[in-house]
């Protein structure tokens, strides 16, 4: 049986391992943390959102970035300190503006496909992850932003998404707890939310039951491609000289923001940039807060904030984009706008107990995930999902598993 090693145990790596196992491969997953889903798959916004498929490659994004550059609490913030990686990425980002429409439509189609895969996996493996199929409501405060959203909606509909405009009265009916003076909105009834960390951990357990091997606390030192692939790694905390080696017939890089460095080891260029996002988990410890928090998922376009209700007693609020390199520091001035937003739009919710978090989104300049072969035989990539890793991962995992099956099929196919 062909042996494939997956680098990374986040949502992308674990869904990839699962798809490969079901295709008949012997699979090993290597991750530098002790458990699955400990980085970007730990506490994201929770939305499974085809309605958020619009790529960011638009001149309005560039204008807002320049406008907000010196405002510490801005939804989009860029550290102006010179960095070749950052500015070369920005150049490629602007060069991809011409693909804005096509990429938005393609992402919508991929997200719709991923949704079905995700639900099938959860049902097949009995994974509970606070799934709520109540739709996602986007709200807009003025006519200009609503008109832009209408143009985006036409692209989403072309991609196959059922998404409709709603009036201020309909917004109130869809989510009665929401307080605000809105011009209008859009509602996507087929979108949903869930806890990415619970899902990924549950799927990792399902993979283990299928025979997938996990190597945790492992720092990959180098990768060599011969007639096979050799992954040299050292146990976390040990000196780099204490190296162990895993052999495989192929390797899939699903390492999030680390994918760029692994690609360089393999002679490839995967220009992922780490775009930091923040979230707060508001603990709904009293009945008033539980009744005052929304169940329908929201996206506030002006604040660039998304929400998810995770069971009776948790409310996840996430947003912001920060271009500041590999930096996981949790800054008060970036968390405060999220908490203030909760207080303003949901005044009945207590913010006495809030857990902040920051994670690094692995973004490609054109906002499209990279599912492809490498320059060397046996090397594959499934990475660069940006802000839509949770939304797209179940589909891209199938794509890369099919690609590997075509290139180097397992000697014997397991029963799925």
Automatic annotation (TrEMBL):
The FAD dependent oxidoreductase domain, residue ranges: 4-403
Matching InterPro entries: FAD-dep_OxRdtase, FAD/NAD-bd_sf
Entry-linked SUPFAM superfamilies: FAD-linked reductases, C-terminal domain (SSF54373), FAD/NAD(P)-binding domain (SSF51905)
Entry keyword set: Oxidoreductase
Record GO cellular component, one term: cytoplasm
Molecular function terms, GO-annotated: oxidoreductase activity
Protein name: D-amino acid dehydrogenase
Gene source species: Agrobacterium pusense
